[in-house]
Each structure stands twice: as C-alpha cells, then as structure tokens.
Specification:
This protein is about 40% helix and about 25% strand. It is of the alpha/beta class. The protein has one domain: Vaccinia Virus protein VP39 (Rossmann fold, 3-Layer(aba) Sandwich). The longest helix is centred in the N-terminal third of the chain and has 16 residues. The chain starts with a helix and ends with a strand.
Length: about 190
C-alpha cells in the first residue's frame, strides 16, 4: 500500500468504520465458534474486533512479512499469525469453520488471483463452513486514494457467480453505494 493508504488503515477513523460498522454488517448473526481464519489483516483492526467478538481460535494470513511481524508483536499468543499468500495458502485443508475477508480483495492485482483466493478459502473451510467478507466499491476518491497502489475492485454483480465457480453454495451478496458484503457456504 502507499504511505497514505497505510496510514489511513491504521487510523481511528478507519478502525471505527471497520470495527463499529462494517464488521457487524458482515458478520450479522454468524456464529464464530470454531477456528476462524482472517485473510489480509494488515494492521489488525478487524483482528482486534474479532477477538472482542469472542473468537477464541483465530488465525490470520498476511502476505507482507513486516505486517505479520507487527501482528505477532501486537497480539502475542492470542492469534496464530501466518505469513503467506491467500491465493496459495500454507494451511491445511478443512481446518476452519469460517474465513473472514474484509476490504482486502481490491489489493489483489488480478481477478484470477481473487478467484484463487476464493478457491483456497473453499479448500481450507470445513464442510458447512462460511466465507464472509466485504470490500469497497470504486469511486473517484477511492481511485485517487490508491494512486501508485494496487486497486482492482471486485464487481459485486458478478461476485456470486465467481463464488459459485469456486464451489460455494448459499451465496449472498449485498451492495450499498460505497461497499458490499458477501457470504457463502461450503456445501
């Protein structure tokens, strides 16, 4: 991420939006009783919120080694931090009850890479496990914010078909003007 983006994603404003508004909207009535995997935690704002939600068995997967080290320092043994690519997860098959993916998909350079993340999420979920997430919808301000940064927004109108192609069922996608959420089940 560029320096402005990195700074904003660690801000109280972003924390309040993600933890206070977006994550509750994404999770809704989803029970997070089993092992949970969070993809692309960055500075750990959603990670912290998931702990507050009561997640006891939380693993994060972060592609940036420095960010992963920061998460290890910040959360200690409360979170299992794994460094790796969500498109090729160094994690066992059927190991998680839920995968949470908040506002990171637009950082993946290609649609093929995003689809690989969906397939890998399906692989690491146990039968009946849920993939739940959100991302931003493109606008001029967001595009400017991502100058010199990867910005590959997901089209929510095609996301359902992409999740089904990865093997998911019971797919739900709900969009607002600024963001969208999704949920899919490994059937």
């Amino acid at each position: 991420m560029n320096w402005l983006h990195d700074r904003y994603c660690a801000s109280d404003k972003w924390k309040n939006l993600m933890a206070g508004e977006t994550l509750p909207w994404v999770l809704g009535d989803l029970q997070l009783d089993g092992p949970v995997l969070e993809l692309g935690p960055g500075p750990g704002i959603v990670t912290e919120a998931l702990i507050r939600y009561g997640v006891k068995d939380l693993t994060t997967l972060e592609i940036e080694p420095a960010a992963a080290d920061g998460l290890r320092d910040r959360f200690g043994d409360r979170v299992q931090v794994t460094t790796g690519d969500a498109a090729d997860m160094p994690l066992p098959e059927a190991a998680f009850a839920a995968v949470v993916c908040c506002t990171m998909l637009h950082h993946v350079p290609t649609a093929a890479g995003q689809d690989a993340i969906f397939r890998e999420s399906f692989r690491v979920l146990e039968r009946g496990g849920v993939l739940a997430g959100s991302d931003s919808r493109p606008n001029l301000r967001l595009r400017l914010f991502h100058l010199n940064d990867i910005f590959n927004p997901v089209d929510p109108s095609t996301l359902g078909r992409r999740l089904e192609a990865a093997g998911f069922g019971s797919v739900e996608v709900e969009a607002t003007e600024r963001r969208f959420r999704f949920r899919a089940v490994k059937v």
